[in-house]
Design a protein that fits this description.
The complex is a heterodimer.
Chain A lengths: L1 H12 L5 H18 L5 H5 L21 H20 L3 H20 L8 H10 L10 H4 L9 H23 L9 H12 L7 H5 L4 H21 L3 H22 L4 H7 L6 H10 L6 H8 L3 H19 L2 H6 L6 H32 L12
Chain B lengths: L1 H20 L22 E13 L4 E4 L1 H4 L7 H9 L17 H7 L18 H14 L5 E14 L3 E5 L5 E6 L2
Antiparallel strand pairs in B: 1-2, 1-3, 3-4, 3-5
The chains are: A mainly alpha, B alpha+beta.
Chain lengths: 378, 181
Amino acid sequence: MRAVEGVDRWIFLGWPVTPEGLAIVRILYAGLGLVIGTPRWAWAGRLPHALWNPEPGPLRLLPGPPGPIVMVALQMVFVAALVALLVGWRTPAMSVAVTVIGATGFGITYAMGNYDHSFMGVLTPAVLAPSGWGARWSVDAAQGRRPDVEGWPVRLLAWLLGLAMLTSAYPKIRSGWLDVHSHAVLGQLASQYFVHGRHALLATQSIHLQVGGFWELFDDLTVLVEGGFVFAVLTVSGTRLWTAMAAVFHAAVLLMINIPFSANLLVYIAFVDWSFISRRFETSMPHPRVGWFVRLARHRAAGVLVVAAGLGYAAFCAAYDALLPALLSLVTDRSDFLAQVSLVLLGGAIGLWYLLSQLLKVAAALVPGRRPGPRPAV
Amino acid sequence: MRAVFVVAPLYVLLQHVVIDRLGEPYPAIALPAFGGRILDSGGEQRVLAPRMTVAFADGSLASLDHNVLFADVRTLRLTVTRRAFLTGRNSDGAVRPAHRSGLLDLLVHGAEPGRTYAVHGRPVTQDPAFLSWLRGRLAALYPGRTAVSLHVRWVIARYALPGGYRGDAPVAVADVTVRLR
């Protein structure tokens, strides 16, 4: 009985949340998704049906990929739902819509040949839908829909991520990543560099780095970060520590191997303690400054406006790409990649800052003079 | 809600069994494994690679990079190329015929690679839609020339550090010819 109570406490009371913190997660998730990279699925509809071979699952019920018009429509509805999530209109329903439409669209592209494993990023909104992440700074809030906030969906997301990481670590262990002679990360680098032509950032410098110990350490740390996640997510601080390490790890992988794990970064947003931002936002941006948003959100036609804005931006994305890659495309032909670089490196920098701050805290606690002394007797 | 937390690891276990037996499902609580790219004891990595040659009506030949053929594809083009010209096909480039008895059979085993279009048992390389797409693509890549066939030779390409490409293994893994005329 006590064990069940303990598990219940862990699930329902263990993850501290505030309406403002969850609102920041929602705004960052949708905002970054919209600015850095919205999906472009039409290519899958243009390929011959003969290539269609979905993985085991519900997509096998489709006889082939839908045509390009359907794929464009699907990606536009996805973007519109993401815009609705950004402004917090019908937040729970839009959260589920983003997941369902995203899973379908990405799944169709995976069924044409390459399974990209972005599902955890797509699943995030549906898992957080019951968290009340639309309770503040949203159209819902302005219209009086203010659900209670719950921490258990964040806990569940962390738990699912830990399990997903385990599915990544286990095959690595089985295929010899911990063998001191294997240098599997170097093998990955060689494959991406020579076969897939990924030569950007520090890839060339890395391929010439002939230090076996470094590569073996990278192999072992990869397995440690991925395999340890499932244990780390048992506590809030462990989740944050491991998430920070993973963010730094993704930045290193991006710099050396040019694989941007940007979908993972969108999941990690949920685990950051955003209270330091929400407190400042509350004090530096008092209510009157966002009065225009509240007035608009309370308007009778607010829903129509949200849908129109969503479809308008979706049309822009279909024509030019998301905002950041569209701007980057004016100066480079690698705009999609560079847009993702910005997200992954920003995530890595935040992760590194967090790790260093934790290290400083530990160091301060270890220095005798910095320890809090005994309270003077009264 | 408590049940979801308990079911999740059991689901991942079941998913592992499905991966072993049928292949990785979608959607799945999973992240990429990157399991099979380890350098061998000689420091060499061997990768299955396509070498494409287009034959034209006037008897001339041109080599074609799979990245060029699938330039519009916004994912790893090598895997798409493998799907198109190797997986599930015999040495003549034909797809293994297979029949699925119903919904469950389709869900469990999936359609044979490249066989999900409407005409049962017809090789992909004779599939009108596939050939039409391929002809159109080659016409766009080689304007004014008529392609009569595409030959895809699958080889083991060898790479080693730090220099890179060390050449192809002499024996081909598969030769696939797609006749276009």
